[in-house]
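lol ok so funny story. i was supposed to be doing the assay writeup but got distracted and ended up predicting the structure for this chain instead. priorities right. anyway since i did it might as well share w the group, maybe its usefull for someone
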Amino acid sequence: HPGGAVIVCLFPNNDILLLEQYRYPFRASVWELPAGKLERCEDPLLCAQRELREETGYTAHDWHHLTSLYTTPGFCDEVLHIYCASGPEPHPDGQALEEGETSIVVHRLPIVQAAAMIDRKEIVDAKTIAGIFLTLRTRGIQ
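and the output, tada:
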């Protein structure tokens, strides 16, 4: 796996964008941050910017690298690069979903509500949990 990029799209009022998407391995909808696979030799920041636009229909002005993490180091060498994107604006053309992404529903909600969803085990995706908690910590949001 070439790795991927994950985006916490943070609005000035501390709302974020979360995706609700049907995932076949779990036969259920899963709450996730926008994310996508790196193209061969692609810069992770460029991937993050592309995926935010494609999956949510938003662009952002300011990008901050939160961390890079190993998803399953005992099994593969995949690395996910997590970014916080602030200053979001809707792209005039909206989403640009690819085949297989048509089930995506974009939600905007307060990041503290997303943290409560983690506590209630409604958000169980690891990259999403890491991105939300890192954003809360680095931005001092309570």
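The helical segments are 44-56, 111-119, 126-139. The chain has a mean pLDDT of 95.
back to the writeup now i swear
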